[in-house]
Amino acid sequence: MPSDPFGQASDDSASTSFDLLHEKVRRWIWRQAWAELRDIQERSIPVLLEGQRDLIIAAGTASGKTEAAFLPIVSRLATDERKPGAGFEAIYISPLRALINDQFGRMETLCEEVEMPVWKWHGDVASSVKERARKRPQGILLTTPESLEAILVRRGNEAKRLFAALSYMVIDEVHAFMDAERGRQLQSLLNRIEIAAGHPVVRVGLSATLADMRISAAFLRPLNPDGVEILESKMGSQPLKLQVRGYIQPRLKQRDANSDKGEATESTADIEIATHLFDTLRGHRSLIFAGSRRNVELYTARLRSLCETSGLPEEFFAHHGSLSREHREEAERRLKEDDRPGSIIATTTLELGIDVGHIDAVSQIGPGHTVSGMRQRLGRSGRRAGQSSVMRVYTTEMAIDERIHPIDAMRPRTVQSIAMLNLMLRRWNEPPQIGCLHLSTLIQQILALIAQHGGLTVKQGWNLLIESRVYPDIDQALYIDVLRRMKHPEVQLIEQAPDGTLLPGEEGERVINDRGFYAVFMTPDEFKVITDRGRNLGTLPVDSPVMPEQLIIFAGRRWRVIELDNQRREILVTRAYGGVPPKFGGEGLPPADEVVAEMRRVYESIAIPRFLDKIALECLTEARVTFDNLGLRHAGLYRYEDELLLFPWVGNRAQLALVLALASHGVTANSEGIAVTIPAKDGGKLVATLKTLAERPAPDAEALARLVPDMKRAKYDAYLGDELLARCYASEHIDAARVPIIAADLLSRLPTGVKTTSET
């Protein structure tokens, strides 16, 4: 138990770490009526009070990671002598504005206790608030990488004054940054801020789903990963209640040409899932992860319709990135009201640690994108003492008939869900991918440094970005190639002064002055969706096919499009019945290598997971029967009608490498989830090509990348040119080194008849 905050001696069971905290911080803890500190808090307090070592705090969702960082940080800062306006003393960096808004309230009450200011600084914060923080910087700053970038680029000459007193930088949800474009930007920002401060600053990473602690330490402190201390929570997990619920979708009849094209096409399975969600969750508090924004809209509209039909108050709310902040915050506020039931249907927007209060259960439609994401979602429920974490996964499979494709008969969604749950229960997470070049972000960071300092030498850029190991896989030759490309007459991002200083070129000036420059990720051109009563509902991508008089579903409600204003980039809508959800794009990712490997183990095993309902169990049984009927226990190839199904049992990067390697030898191949399809007429050519690929060294990844029709994936890829773009794409998407191994394995698993046919 925590000792008395007023300084009396504590008993033998008292927390020794609690006694190390500042008296006012102890008093705050006492008023929260905490029975004890969490184990991760006990262990982090002495490390961060010392203020000498970088630290990773790895603990489950709702384990008190934020307090594990800020109880000692606030204690240390409250003890140190502080000169008002001398600079921010700690920075909290989050991937989401909503997470900052959520943490701000919690942080404010703690810091009020020690009379320490706390500032929010992101795109939704009033400029007057930012101006007050800038003029008198002190206390704790809560911000995003994009806002930090804006501070350094726009106020580079003030950076030293703003960060001179900085002692700590805390990165929340660090796994969300690792091996991503924003992660490279963040690493560069941490380095640039330390340089501005003029001294090393303690870095603290918080996460619930880190897979490889060594790689995580190298991300946090690239030049000294061995100096990063790692604390993993020893607390036991909450009891789990898991269920995979299966649903069978009958084969849809062809739509009648005269049918109403304005109505949403909901499948029988979708309706059954929505009905079960309604019956199970009505009157409770829950999160429903629907996968895509389109699914969020469909299920929210369906669930709201069920509420209306039953004469019940509205309990179901949509939440995704295209909805306005007002809509998202309204849904979040509803779930924070402990005395009212409510459910939010979301994409991944609520996967991270935004506090929406006590949650009874989590539901997920489809297998989801990642195991780590599934773990984050599960952690949102079961936070109260003695309560279980509850998750239901809903899977849909096609009815088996004479027309069903063998891949559908293998029940891949059900098997993938089982595989991901198995891996989650083993505490496995997707490891970060290493070796990615992220040249688009390198271009942005070079321009940002030029803007921050009013110019940059080639050597300064090298020191700040490459020697700092922000970009560990870029050598001197590649760095120079990127600079030359940026200076190329057809690009004009930079130019070079007579003394060698790099300055913005004509295009570089335009890019730097663009309001979207501070974000390294792509932001699609969008239309605002405005109601006829003037309410902003959110945004739709420009390429979404919306026309006047069209009926759509948006924000979980049904609307008719009145007008499309191209100049103002606005869609005017009014309430209506019927409608289809618009296409948002960017939906779905193939599973990782280990997920595919686990799927294969599920097919080959006879074990029956206890978390399957009756239909999911039937689907698993059918999947295993199909697996054996196709001969896949020993073979890797099956002929179905006029195509060959190849089963390499590898993840997305290795499978793409195989598909492109086959294409480079004239074999037409397409990825179809766990299988690769090839025209049956190319069977002989396929076997010959596999032999060639198995016998030769691994193909050149860049040569394979050039076979991709459009390699541009990142924001500034268009400036790279074909050669650099192919190199970058290959590093991020193609695992060419494994092609000979995969080809040899497939050859060893070819059915005898295929081998004989090809050889004759």
TrEMBL record:
InterPro entries: ATP-dep_Helicase, DEAD/DEAH_box_helicase_dom, Helicase_ATP-bd, Helicase_C-like, P-loop_NTPase. Residues 273-426 form the Helicase C-terminal domain. Keywords: ATP-binding, Helicase, Hydrolase, Nucleotide-binding. SUPFAM superfamilies: P-loop containing nucleoside triphosphate hydrolases. Residues 46-228 form the Helicase ATP-binding domain. GO terms for molecular function: ATP binding; ATP hydrolysis activity; DNA binding; helicase activity. This is ATP-dependent helicase.
